[in-house]
Amino acid sequence: MPVNRWGAGVKMLAVPLLVFLLLIGAVSCGGGSEERSADTDPVPPPAAVAPGTGRTASPVTIPPGAPAGPARVEGLEAGSDLAVAFQQAAELTRTGLYDRALELYEQILEERPEHAPTLINAARIHFIRGRTSEAIVLLERSNRAMPNNPRTLAYLGMAEVKAGRFEDALVHLEGSSLLDPTRIDVGNELAGVYFQLERYEDAAEAWERVLKLDSENIMARAGLEQIRQTASSAGSGPPQD
Fold this sequence. Notes:
Blueprint: H1 2-24, H2 81-94, H3 98-111, H4 116-128, H5 132-145, H6 150-162, H7 166-179, H8 184-196, H9 200-213, H10 218-234
Helix pairs in contact: 1-8, 1-10, 2-3, 3-4, 4-5, 4-6, 5-6, 6-7, 7-8, 8-9, 8-10, 9-10
């Protein structure tokens, strides 16, 4: 059936694109919600005991070559060891040293177990490594720690798509799209989920929104063409342009 063939096509197109988008956008503390001036939201120094664990947190080890200047990361004291470790982990991720970066993120989480940017970035590494279930667990923690964050909702929805949890993915992708309608990757993922659920009109509308942001977007054009073919075969569906 056309729907089944398209379902496979969506996965073949979406997963490589998703990994690429996660990688190139990975864990930079130089923009977005991961960075904030230290004087806008003062944060107390890291606790000596990891909250909720009742044990002393392991000290964060800063590798040589950490970026110069005070590191500024949302929820971490500017210039602190934790902030510098976060910045270094971002650099390690960009150079493909995922295991070392993940080790640093895990050390940060020992002291700040609900630090949403660290949870998101650690989840990205798990996703890139193909550990989808681990990524979902961390993203769910991030969503509880920082509700209604469009980045968390986006990555959680994308991970759920890969896990085949389309109904859950729909909730999170729709939420991310409402909060930040400019994200093309979310728009494509959302449209693909609508298609998988045979909500063709919603899928067409979602891909049309993507084309308003990027008129040459390959996935959106291919998706709309597949909808037209499906509608033509079935003798019904969304109207053609």
